């Protein structure tokens, strides 16, 4: 979700809004104008070596105690049971939890087909309520670099919110990871109530998408 309180009627600002509903920020002239270094960087291509399976990297020099410890400092202790023979990481988003002090936690399991509830809203939240989103996910096979969360929300076809958050880099492990988003507050008022559509994506630095989820949710007077 990621909605902010609607701006009060009559409030004006000279800043450029970063979101349709959200905080605003001013950009300096220097941040808007490209520099020579920026233009040079666009023409430079970063040449990377071939990707190597994590299992192969871990088994290299495994008898060298100093190298083993150095690798553990970089990626942590990795269980080889969670590491495959291919270099591609595998990320599975297990569930989304909505936490609010006004009610019990809502744990929403991610369906295998990517369709949470094709016949209606996936969940309902109360207007003007504080909430926190929590993601549980598991990483196997290889390190995933720069995993991030993108979420876009529309109401009646108009985009009202866009959120992007960097989750981080994660190594394979048996236990799921958990990421807690900052607390937010749902908008309130007659114009805030209704049905919203949303699209949630989890992608990494290589723009590999691990989840592309489309769903709807409602904002009502009361929790349901």
Automatic annotation (TrEMBL):
Region named Disordered: 1-52
Compositionally biased intervals (Basic and acidic residues): 1-23
InterPro entries listed in its UniProt record: Ig_E-set, Rho_GDI, RhoGDI_dom_sf
Major localization class: cytoplasm
One Pfam entry name: Rho_GDI
Segment forming the signal sequence: none
Keywords: Cytoplasm
Gene Ontology cellular component list: cytosol; membrane
Record-linked SUPFAM superfamilies: E set domains
Biological processes annotated in GO: Rho protein signal transduction
Domain of life: Eukaryota
Localization, UniProt: Cytoplasm
Coiled coil: none
GO terms assigned for molecular function: Rho GDP-dissociation inhibitor activity
Biased composition (Polar residues): 25-34
Homology family: Belongs to the Rho GDI family.
Name recorded for this polypeptide: Rho GDP-dissociation inhibitor 1-like
